[in-house]
Design a protein that fits this description.
Layout (H helix, E strand, L loop, with lengths): L3 E6 L5 E6 L12 E4 H23 L4 H15 L7 E8 L1
Antiparallel strand pairs: 1-2, 1-4, 3-4
């Protein structure tokens, strides 16, 4: 299963490279698009859970790394300014 990394710029200017075990994450984000923080979180939950389920379908267990990435995204979001906050998905890479 091809894994994908996606680089995001947080409202505070911080930059993170996030992990997905599947290209399905590209169904939830567009490179170069900014998302309101709440929408980014919802898309992250949906996309990383979908990616984890693809792993489960192939290997019989969910992807703990995808779920760990989701936990890291949710934790980072809590430290961000919320007024008009958006997250930019800068790029995807293999």
């Amino acid at each position: 299963m091809p894994e994908v990394h996606f680089r995001v710029r947080w409202p505070d200017g911080g930059l993170d490279t996030c992990y997905s075990p599947s290209t399905v994450i590209k169904d939830f984000f567009v490179a170069g698009q900014a998302y309101p923080l709440d929408e980014f979180l919802q898309r992250s939950r949906s996309g990383l859970n979908a990616a984890s389920e693809r792993v489960r379908a192939l290997y019989g267990m969910s992807c703990s790394r995808a779920l760990g990435q989701l936990a890291a995204i949710e934790a980072k979001a809590k430290s961000q300014p919320t007024e008009g906050a958006s997250v930019l998905v800068e790029a995807f890479s293999a």
